[in-house]
Structure formats: structure tokens, C-alpha cells
């Protein structure tokens, strides 16, 4: 007897759960040689709104955690991803046509990215903050704080590393994320959502949408409850219109850049606001 395989439909990741798109839509994901691989949910405007609501609800808990705790959580993501390395390698080989060796290197880089940013969680404030010299009997301290909800268009030519290189730094300072994954290579993004769900990342801290960035990004850019917009992977979109839409609600914008971003502390501080505090010196 010939056994029929069961086509899998990958879901979205919103608020720590895996819902189907409210529209009921999905699209086919194919291998590098054109064979059917799976179905992925095609996120809608309503899904984007739900993801922003979930991200907003998670801000206080995530930003209120200690920097040390956030670092430990991000490191745990690396641990779980390491344990599922073979699955991610297989997905990159099938969808992107990479050799096993090349896919393995990319997965290793993704794991190392989580570790690198985890290490900055309780250190970047000392680098980005300052004690300011003032004329008077005062302490004047500048401290970076999270911006809030960050909407991200992940790099579209890569399924895993570009996603991790944009999501991880946004989380370090205590921001929460809504990310639009690669439309062509969405499976590593959904598999990463499964890693997040089985790590210690609270529900709503990262929300993953699959589908068309051209359809979803304008709603995120104009959403009044999105505090920052990372357009790293939006080079093929009309990103100027997205920036204009974001300006209507004073949303901070990180403009597109080619390829996969590197490891950089600037990507952490891009989504922080500097708070300056004055405190009287003791006269005793």
C-alpha cells in the first residue's frame, strides 16, 4: 500500500499561539526546484492588528524584566535552536537550494547571533548610557530605554539568518516585535516561532506573520500603536510611502539595507529612547 503524505499548513504566531489567518487564506511554498513543500498562512490586515495588540500587551512584562533575565531568555532560544539544528538545515536545503554544508553554516550563524545579542542585554546600557557633566550639585544620568512595539520587515532573500539578525537586537532592550517573514521562504520563520514558544520567551514578545509584505507592511507602518518600524527587508517595496505613513504617528524608522545585516550594537540602540534623569547630590 502506498502511503499518502499529509500536506502541512503552517500557521501564524501571535500572542504565544498559532492561529490560522482570520481570512482563511494560505499560499503554496515550493522547493528550490519547484516541487510542493507546504502551505503557509497568508496574513491579513486583521492578523497584523491582532499581532500589534499582542505585542503591546507584552511590552510591560518584557521591558520590566531585568536585563540579566532577558539575556538568559535569549540565550535559551539559542540552546533550543541548537537542539533543532537538523530541522532548520533541512528546511534551508529544501526551500533555498543550499548545500547541506552552506545551510549548516547559516544555522550556526543564526544560533551565534542569539548568543551574541544575549550577551549585550545587561551590558549595552553601560555603553549607550552616560553620566553627564553638569554645573551644579547634581547627578545627571542618561539611560537608554525601550521604544516599545517594533514592526519589522525581515530580509526577503533569506529565510532564517536575516530574520534572526533583525528580531534579536530589537528584543535586547525590552522591545516587543511584530515581524513579517520572508514571503518566499517562510518555513524557517514558523519553525523559529516554535522554538520561541518552547523557550522562555513570553507570549506576545515576538509575533510572526507570513504572507505578502506588500500587503501587510502598509498597515503596520500606519498603525498608531507601532512605535518603531524596521524596513531592513523592504528594499523591493515602495518604502518611501511606508516611511511617510509612519511619520503620521511619529513612528521611528530604520531604512532598508541590502542583504543580511551584520552583528551591531547600533541595531540595539536604534530602538531605544534616551531618558535623562537629574538627582541632587547629598550635601552631607
TrEMBL record:
Keyword Oxidoreductase: yes
Keyword annotations: Oxidoreductase
Signal peptide start and end residues: none
Domain of life: Bacteria
Protein name: Aldehyde dehydrogenase family protein
GO terms assigned for molecular function: oxidoreductase activity
Organism: Protaetiibacter intestinalis
Translocase in keyword set: no
Domain Aldehyde dehydrogenase: 28-234
InterPro entries: Ald_DH/histidinol_DH, Ald_DH_N, Aldehyde_DH_dom
UniProt-listed PANTHER family: ALDEHYDE DEHYDROGENASE-RELATED
Pfam families tied to this protein: Aldedh (PF00171)
